[in-house]
Amino acid sequence: MKLLILDAGHCLSLALAREANRRSDTELVIEHETQLTAERLQSVSPDAVIIPPLAHPLNMAPAAVMAHADAVEACLVACQSADIALVWCVSDQLYEDGFDVPIDEHVVPAPRDDSLRRLVRTGNRIRADYDRHLIVRLGPLFALEGSHAWLNELLDSLVMGENVRAAEDVIFCPTSADAVALSLIGMLQQQSCGADAWGAYHLAGTEPVSAFTFTSMVRTQLSTHLEGRGEQVTLGEVQALKHHHDAKLRRVLNCRRVLDVFGVHQKPWRLEVGRMLDAWCLTRDQQGVDDTGATS
């Protein structure tokens, strides 16, 4: 199976590359940009095109969000003309106001923000115009490298002693980019074998949590890892923010359908964070650090 991945520097693109390198049944072609012409698509001739998500579209400049939507729609046209499957990954922030209960796939986002509404229109066009699509809605991604990786910047800030601010009244499911990459390749392998299960799917980590609690847990695990290595590092503190004064906003994706259809189990974010911290410490050993925590 050959996959064409857009946005080479994205943390999900890098995770897909790592996963493909461990397998003999998947070939990746990675484009640096999010733009894709019909000519380029025909020359590569992949089985599917994967577009990584805008991780935090609510916090981005509207022009950047609009440009992403335009690029996705151009990719849709190219995929239609070549009869190539399209996989578009989307942030859970499209559910701007959240829901009191876990959100099922059939619930189409209805945000108030104009930029998010533009992304929803793109999704509606994909569903209406092209059967061979997967729209995969994701929780907040975390990884150790690449753009939108979140965890790498968080670790760097804490180790440098900088305080980190995080909302305590927004509840979501942090999602490992590595787990998403593994799931996407597995889903597409099943599709290539005739599963014919196109449509929208939710893919997120287990255990809903606030950004503040997630960040605090990362700090705790980081402290434990460093102490176990004999390092004395004064970590930055985690400060709570409140955006919603009346009630907590919940963006919890119900991922039952991806389990029922593809057998994909969600990975607990605590285990994924622990695994990534092990890898982070190994890299730290290889680089070498002095007693202050600085690279030597």
UniProtKB/TrEMBL annotation:
Pfam families in the cross-refs: RmlD_sub_bind
Domain RmlD-like substrate binding: 63-279
The protein, known as: dTDP-4-dehydrorhamnose reductase
Organism: Vreelandella arcis
